[in-house]
């Protein structure tokens, strides 16, 4: 990551609670004074007829990190992203953007933050039906107060970035779902925000279009390096995109980890159950289970035979290579340097857990 | 409902455990029985004693009078301010040479809805011009043109406020409900006192009356905007004002334009109703005047002018919501230019005859008059026969009961106690049979219906009515509605309006009953046969665009003044929602339900009875609800051609500028409408829940 050690994370979420119902704040305070785990506190709130949707969660998103929050419907993930963007007022807790607690920020400051620093993409696109593609994309710039010529130029630039050049004059109703979400993405990027919130951006799309947009999203992010919170209910999508994943259940985070950690070391049966459905051979790469070469160069693959594996290779492809020769293989990175070794038994263990 | 319970639970429950429906039924029967037994012994049970009547109407009158006097200076200021735009619009439309307004409307029609709309405008205005009522029509239109912007602004404001302030939304909804249920005439009395005689009263009344539909549609439109669109706007960093003006309102524009259409139609309807105040030479006044003089040819012609006008305005404001129909603005501007030129030419040279000199259709009116005289001379006996049959064998027994209505010179015999005993015994036997089958509610309905037929609605003992209203309220909406219904009836009795209220219930009840049967049957027919719907649909559309007033003309022509004409007018107006909602409910049964029933081997009839009609029940109940509200609205207007009851009281109060009576009777009417609305809505909501909708 680019930021120096010790600098504040891009987004820090601290002990965040969102409780729906009458006099939620006071009820939460009295429930918390009784102590106990978040689940116990939530139980007390529930008995009072309130709905504790998010239950004391904490996490950090580093600058430039793609952080995915994954959970099934009703797990509270959409509520979390609405608290982070303060579309909802959290009942308790803090959300710090570059060290500044935005929950305590006055409305005027919040408007300024949204105009300059944040972008958001919505599941059903949230496009303005009475504006053309160009007007939709330029609207955030208009709200910023930019002159018409400047915002038209910038809008065109972003529209080209998402591959919609030529459709500037179309209305949202004239576009396909995939095209609409491209407009949504372009609009959220128009002001070049530092923080990018995406709320299930690809869930409403067909599988084919979804994969295409995921790939383009990764391409965009590799160039932009935004700090991202990405919500999804699709574990495959989470594993494909994420630098790190937080898995949510009943308003709490069950596990935070890299995709490999989630799959290989699930924190509990619930996470394991997700991981079980994953075609690991396709989803995981050699890099996630290889033995890395030590700093001193030990384990550099002296006893290795056969062709080298690439770090980006899927486990299925690695297996096909290793099947010919059941001895350790060298692993090389994109530049051809040896970065680790792959032992066939690790490979079989990683894949084996898949088999029922 | 016993339907909603599982069979196992029904079996397990002891037989004496009654559901809410059964308990309500029992309470109603008990209240009726006790009142019937006590009525001969205690005179205060049979009729609310005069000594118990509180001086409510006088107090309301003096209190309101004091308040109105207080704000009168402000009101006069408003009417003074409104006089300016009023004078300007009247000059432009009615006093300037007619080619100007004519061409202006054609240009507007062309721009809003293309060549077809322009052609429709030419045809409609041509008819108006030929009828000789151009000036009167334009006077009416001037009122509409000034009141509509007021109503639109008011409605938009209320709608946006209700959406933005969740806390006051419920309160504002109630205010809207009341604004729409208070009968139209009842607005007029306080406004008359406040603003004095003149067109401003109609102006303000129609602005008040036309605002609620606009507000409702604005609120509905804003509620239907995808919440993510609003969230997107907030995330972009819009201020609240920016979001409302630049995002929310444009995104809800489709629904808002529907509101504009309804607002314009309501304003027109109210402007015409307000003509009863008089003092302004508008088309509504013309209808009223010619009707009073029994010049039916002219009344019909003026009525047709109103209908043509209403349709034109309706189509034009509906076309607003369809931007793809816009015509070429350049041609529209050219037409406007030509009309200004023609106006100038006509003003300076006088080549084109003035609107007052055109009366091409007068021979038609004379012909209609002659024809009508001819017709009534030939068929008067038959028409009277129809009217008398309906009165003697239907309306009168319902009103005063079989025991009073059956007389030797109509029915051929005298009703005696023995016959009452026989009828009750028969009903009792039927009820017992139903009880044995377990249909407690049906048994109660049979017993209560028989009792009402025997005694007559207006002679029911008041304790029984109050208890029955409260019990039904409890069943439909819990204790709150029970208290509201019961207390409302008590209040009407205490205010000395009991007899009038029961008369209103009787006439609107008869009309609703007829509408429910006829409208339900027609709706069913329209659902089964596309051909029938193709015939019925334009009829329904027309009936709904016609201002209430016009319904009275044909009824009056054939059946003279009286309750029967009023009943027909109410039915003609109130039957439409029943047809529409019944058809809609039945037609919109989900395809998979129909397929599942077909796959189970259901015949067409079984499908209708077991699948489609139960599914349509909530929709049909909403139709009934609308029918009831329509009937109440028309009931008040029908006071013009002779009804008794609250409507008549409101109308009389208007004539005498009697604030107390007018406002109290108006409030009683609104209470009845609100109770009926809440009851039916409660039952509809329950059916929807039972169906999981």
TrEMBL record, chain B:
<feature type="transmembrane region" description="Helical">
    <location>
        <begin position="478"/>
        <end position="498"/>
    </location>
</feature>
<keyword id="KW-1003">Cell membrane</keyword>
<keyword id="KW-1133">Transmembrane helix</keyword>
<feature type="transmembrane region" description="Helical">
    <location>
        <begin position="295"/>
        <end position="313"/>
    </location>
</feature>
<dbReference type="InterPro" id="IPR035906">
    <property type="entry name" value="MetI-like_sf"/>
</dbReference>
<feature type="transmembrane region" description="Helical">
    <location>
        <begin position="659"/>
        <end position="680"/>
    </location>
</feature>
<feature type="transmembrane region" description="Helical">
    <location>
        <begin position="548"/>
        <end position="576"/>
    </location>
</feature>
<comment type="similarity">
    <text>Belongs to the binding-protein-dependent transport system permease family.</text>
</comment>
<keyword id="KW-0472">Membrane</keyword>
<feature type="transmembrane region" description="Helical">
    <location>
        <begin position="105"/>
        <end position="129"/>
    </location>
</feature>
<dbReference type="InterPro" id="IPR000515">
    <property type="entry name" value="MetI-like"/>
</dbReference>
<feature type="domain" description="ABC transmembrane type-1">
    <location>
        <begin position="137"/>
        <end position="317"/>
    </location>
</feature>
<feature type="transmembrane region" description="Helical">
    <location>
        <begin position="419"/>
        <end position="436"/>
    </location>
</feature>
<feature type="domain" description="ABC transmembrane type-1">
    <location>
        <begin position="501"/>
        <end position="680"/>
    </location>
</feature>
<feature type="transmembrane region" description="Helical">
    <location>
        <begin position="334"/>
        <end position="356"/>
    </location>
</feature>
<feature type="transmembrane region" description="Helical">
    <location>
        <begin position="505"/>
        <end position="528"/>
    </location>
</feature>
<feature type="transmembrane region" description="Helical">
    <location>
        <begin position="25"/>
        <end position="46"/>
    </location>
</feature>
<feature type="transmembrane region" description="Helical">
    <location>
        <begin position="141"/>
        <end position="163"/>
    </location>
</feature>
<keyword id="KW-0813">Transport</keyword>
<feature type="transmembrane region" description="Helical">
    <location>
        <begin position="628"/>
        <end position="653"/>
    </location>
</feature>
<dbReference type="Pfam" id="PF00528">
    <property type="entry name" value="BPD_transp_1"/>
</dbReference>
<feature type="transmembrane region" description="Helical">
    <location>
        <begin position="184"/>
        <end position="211"/>
    </location>
</feature>
<protein>
    <submittedName>
        <fullName>ABC transporter permease subunit</fullName>
    </submittedName>
</protein>
<feature type="transmembrane region" description="Helical">
    <location>
        <begin position="443"/>
        <end position="472"/>
    </location>
</feature>
<keyword id="KW-0812">Transmembrane</keyword>
């Amino acid at each position: 990551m680019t930021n120096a050690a010790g600098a504040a994370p891009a987004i820090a979420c601290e002990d965040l609670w969102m409780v729906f119902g009458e006099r939620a704040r006071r009820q939460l305070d009295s429930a918390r004074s009784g102590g106990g785990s978040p689940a116990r506190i939530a139980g007390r709130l529930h008995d009072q007829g309130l709905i504790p949707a998010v239950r004391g969660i904490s996490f950090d998103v580093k600058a430039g990190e793609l952080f995915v929050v994954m959970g099934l419907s009703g797990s509270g993930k959409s509520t979390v992203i609405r608290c982070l963007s303060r579309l909802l007022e959290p009942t308790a807790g803090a959300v710090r953007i570059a060290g500044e607690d935005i929950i305590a920020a006055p409305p005027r400051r919040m408007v300024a933050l949204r105009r300059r620093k944040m972008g958001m993409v919505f599941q059903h696109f949230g496009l303005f039906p009475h504006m053309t593609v160009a007007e939709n994309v330029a609207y955030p710039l208009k709200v910023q107060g930019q002159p018409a010529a400047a915002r038209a130029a910038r809008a065109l630039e972003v529209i080209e970035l998402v591959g919609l050049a030529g459709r500037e004059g179309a209305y949202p109703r004239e576009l396909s779902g995939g095209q609409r979400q491209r407009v949504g993405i372009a609009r959220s990027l128009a002001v070049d925000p530092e923080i990018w919130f995406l709320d299930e951006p690809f869930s409403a799309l067909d599988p084919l279009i979804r994969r295409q947009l995921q790939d383009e999203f990764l391409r965009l992010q590799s160039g932009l390096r935004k700090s991202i919170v990405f919500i999804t209910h699709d574990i495959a999508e989470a594993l494909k995109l994420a630098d790190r994943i937080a898995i949510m259940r009943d308003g709490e985070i069950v596990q935070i980890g890299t995709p490999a950690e989630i799959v290989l070391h699930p924190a509990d049966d619930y996470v394991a159950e997700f991981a079980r459905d994953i075609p690991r051979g396709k989803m995981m790469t050699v890099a996630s289970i290889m033995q890395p070469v030590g700093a001193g160069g030990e384990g550099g693959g002296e006893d290795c035979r056969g062709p080298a594996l690439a770090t980006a290779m899927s486990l299925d492809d690695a297996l096909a290579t290793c099947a010919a020769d059941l001895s350790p293989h060298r692993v090389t990175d994109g530049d051809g340097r040896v970065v680790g070794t792959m032992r066939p038994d690790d490979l079989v263990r990683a894949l084996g857990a898949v088999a029922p | 409902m016993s339907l909603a319970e599982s069979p196992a639970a029904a079996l397990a429950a002891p037989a004496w455990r009654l559901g809410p429906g059964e308990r309500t039924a029992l309470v109603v029967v008990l209240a009726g029985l006790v009142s019937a037994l006590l009525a001969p012994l205690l005179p205060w049970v049979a009729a609310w004693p005069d000594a118990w009547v509180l001086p409510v109407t006088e107090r309301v009158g003096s209190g309101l009078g004091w308040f109105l006097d207080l704000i009168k200076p402000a009101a006069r200021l408003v009417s003074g301010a409104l006089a300016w735009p009023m004078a300007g619009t009247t000059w432009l439309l009615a006093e300037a040479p007619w080619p100007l307004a004519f061409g202006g409307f054609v240009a507007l029609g062309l721009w809003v809805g293309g060549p077809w709309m322009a052609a429709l405008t030419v045809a409609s205005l041509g008819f108006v011009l030929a009828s000789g009522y151009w000036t009167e029509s334009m006077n009416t239109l001037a009122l509409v043109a000034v009141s509509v912007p007021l109503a639109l602004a008011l409605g938009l404001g209320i709608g946006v406020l209700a959406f933005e302030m969740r806390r006051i939304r419920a309160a504002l909804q109630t205010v809207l409900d009341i604004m729409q249920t208070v009968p139209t005439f009842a607005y007029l009395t306080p406004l008359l006192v406040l603003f004095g005689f003149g067109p401003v009263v109609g102006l303000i009344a129609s602005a008040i009356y036309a605002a609620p539909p606009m507000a409702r549609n604005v609120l509905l439109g804003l509620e239907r905007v995808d919440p993510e669109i609003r969230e997107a706007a907030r995330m972009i960093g819009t201020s609240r004002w920016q979001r409302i003006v630049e995002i929310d309102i444009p995104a809800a524009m489709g629904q808002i334009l529907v509101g504009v259409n309804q607002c314009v139609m309501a304003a027109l309807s109210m402007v015409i109703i307000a003509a009863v105040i008089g003092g302004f030479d508008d088309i509504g006044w013309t209808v009223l005047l010619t009707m009073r003089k029994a010049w039916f040819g002219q009344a019909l012609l003026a009525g047709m002018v109103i209908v043509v006008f209403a349709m034109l305005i309706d189509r034009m404001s509906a076309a607003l919501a369809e931007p793809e129909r816009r015509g070429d603005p350049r041609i529209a501007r050219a037409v406007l230019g030509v009309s200004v030129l023609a106006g100038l030419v006509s003003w300076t040279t006088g080549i084109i005859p003035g609107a007052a000199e055109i009366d091409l259709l007068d021979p038609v009116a004379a012909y209609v008059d002659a024809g009508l005289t001819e017709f009534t001379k030939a068929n008067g006996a038959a028409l009277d026969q129809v009217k008398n049959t309906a009165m003697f064998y239907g309306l009168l027994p319902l009103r005063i009961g079989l025991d009073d209505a059956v007389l030797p010179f109509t029915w051929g015999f005298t009703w005696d106690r023995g016959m009452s005993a026989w009828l009750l015994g028969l009903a009792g036997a039927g009820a017992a049979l139903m009880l044995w089958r377990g249909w407690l509610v049906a048994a109660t309905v049979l017993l209560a219906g028989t009792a009402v037929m025997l005694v007559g609605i207006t002679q029911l003992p008041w304790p029984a009515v109050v208890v029955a209203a409260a019990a039904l309220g409890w069943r439909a909406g819990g204790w709150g509605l029970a208290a509201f219904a019961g207390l409302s009836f008590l209040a009407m009795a205490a205010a000395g309006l009991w007899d009038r209220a029961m008369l209103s219930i009787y006439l609107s009840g008869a009309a609703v009953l007829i509408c429910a049967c006829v409208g339900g049957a027609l709706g069913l027919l329209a659902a089964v046969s596309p051909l029938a719907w193709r015939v019925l649909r334009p009829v329904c559309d027309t009936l709904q665009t016609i201002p209430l007033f016009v319904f009275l003309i044909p009824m009056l022509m054939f059946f003279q003044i009286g309750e029967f004409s009023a009943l027909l007018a109410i039915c003609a107006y109130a039957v439409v929602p029943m047809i529409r909602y019944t058809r809609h409910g039945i037609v919109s049964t989900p395809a998979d339900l129909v397929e599942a029933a077909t796959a189970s081997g259901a015949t067409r009839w079984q499908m209708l009875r077991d699948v489609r009609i139960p599914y349509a029940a909530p929709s049909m109940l909403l139709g009934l609800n609308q029918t009831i509200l329509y009937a109440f609205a028309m009931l008040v207007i029908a006071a013009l051609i002779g009804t008794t009851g609250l409507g008549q009281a409101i109308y009389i109060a208007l004539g005498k500028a009697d604030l107390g009576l007018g406002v109290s009777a108006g409030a009683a009417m609104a209470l009845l409408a609100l109770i009926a609305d809440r009851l039916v809505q409660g039952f509809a909501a329950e059916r929807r829940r039972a169906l999981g909708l």
